[in-house]
UniProtKB/TrEMBL annotation:
<dbReference type="InterPro" id="IPR001466">
    <property type="entry name" value="Beta-lactam-related"/>
</dbReference>
<feature type="domain" description="Beta-lactamase-related">
    <location>
        <begin position="36"/>
        <end position="326"/>
    </location>
</feature>
<dbReference type="InterPro" id="IPR012338">
    <property type="entry name" value="Beta-lactam/transpept-like"/>
</dbReference>
<keyword id="KW-0378">Hydrolase</keyword>
<dbReference type="GO" id="GO:0016787">
    <property type="term" value="F:hydrolase activity"/>
</dbReference>
<dbReference type="InterPro" id="IPR050789">
    <property type="entry name" value="Diverse_Enzym_Activities"/>
</dbReference>
<protein>
    <submittedName>
        <fullName>Serine hydrolase</fullName>
        <ecNumber>3.-.-.-</ecNumber>
    </submittedName>
</protein>
<dbReference type="Pfam" id="PF00144">
    <property type="entry name" value="Beta-lactamase"/>
</dbReference>
């Protein structure tokens, strides 16, 4: 791929990070961006907003002029936020620990609880997407046979997830599944007695000073734990910085350090060069290069190019919002931006 350093070399000088971003957009190497916001050690090092065609959970919004306060779909970055919420609920002893059996916490389904092929299911398997149950999100999200879409259309979303055919022993195979996160969200609701958006508002958003958000719900009124959250980039960046601070915010403990560390520990390979923790993607080999050393990164990934990238060792957090929904190459622009601009220029902004 053509390097975004080329304009700098042609000009005989070094471009700033902001200049390189502008050059990448002007050249067409960085497409479909809506927002870029990055910080290092709590200091903003890159900020960009532009207008673009957008949607809200598949509903067209037309052309949107993005700014610091504009809400945007997180899509599956929502999953990583839900992972944090489970940790908060666990810290308060409102939900069962990850090693607890899963099905007894869904007593509505005695037939599934009694099924011999599901006895090994534990909450940890839902948190790491290793339930071993059939799930297909390889299909476009416009396809009713996509498992997340089928779950949203099902009369009972939790039965739909839990009765999927067993295709692997629990804990042995990673299968990307919004259904796993739906179960995690429901465990939070049952344990706390509060809908997911309400619990999030009280325990995570308000302590971080986040006062505007939307959480899209399905036809059954249940907020989508897999993909329904909408936040401004600045507010998602705060959540990322909270993770970098291992759960502390302005001296207050929001999430236990133990939960953060366990969530960011690789649990299983994803099969494409990455690993997965508790609803976070992780650089499996921990060898992402920065000047002066090598550092692991973690991330929440969302359909259309939504990203929350974190590099704890370097204190870097980055939010990227894009509008390339359902496109197979939506990963290209955020990945180039992360590698070639943010990481390559960390400390030089």
């Amino acid at each position: 791929m053509t390097s975004m350093d080329a304009p700098a070399k042609a000009m005989g000088g070094r471009l700033t990070m902001q200049d390189k971003l502008a050059a990448g957009i002007a050249s067409g190497l960085l497409r479909d961006l809506h927002v870029v916001l990055a910080s290092q050690d709590g200091r903003i090092i890159l900020e960009h907003y532009q207008a673009g065609v957008d949607e809200s959970w598949g509903r067209p919004l037309g052309e949107v002029g993005f700014g610091p306060q504009t809400l945007h779909d997180l899509r599956s970055v929502t999953k990583s936020v839900v992972g944090l919420l489970y940790g908060i609920a666990l810290d308060r002893k409102l939900v069962p620990p990850p090693d607890a059996p899963l099905l007894p916490h869904f007593p509505d389904y005695p037939d599934l609880i009694a099924a011999s092929d599901r006895q090994g299911l534990r909450i940890e398997h839902a948190l790491t997407m290793t339930l071993g149950l059939e799930w297909d999100e390889e299909r476009p999200y416009t396809d009713p046979l996509n498992s997340e879409i089928a779950m949203e259309m099902a009369p009972d979303r939790y039965r739909f997830v839990l009765e999927r055919p067993v295709v692997a022993q629990p804990g042995t195979r990673w299968i990307y599944s919004g259904g796993c996160v739906a179960l995690v969200g429901e465990l939070i609701r049952r344990g706390t007695g509060k809908a997911l958006p309400e619990f999030a508002r009280e325990t995570l958003f308000e302590p971080l000073g986040i006062d505007r958000f939307e959480w899209i719900a399905g036809d059954d009124g249940v907020a989508s734990a897999a993909s329904g959250l909408r936040l401004s980039a600045a507010d998602l960046l705060r959540i990322g910085e909270l993770v970098l601070a291992k759960g502390l915010w302005n001296g207050d403990r929001i999430i236990s350090q133990a939960w953060i560390e366990a969530s960011l520990k690789p649990a299983i390979p994803t099969g494409d060069g990455l690993a997965y923790g508790r609803l976070w993607f992780i650089s499996a080999d921990a060898t992402t290069a920065l000047p002066g050393g090598e550092h692991p990164w973690i991330a929440g990934f969302g359909n259309g190019g939504q990203r929350l990238w974190l590099m704890p060792d370097a204190g870097i957090a980055a939010v990227i919002y894009s509008g390339k929904y359902n496109a197979p190459d939506a990963w290209v622009t955020p990945t180039r931006l992360w590698r070639e601009i943010i990481l390559a220029n960390a400390g030089k902004a």
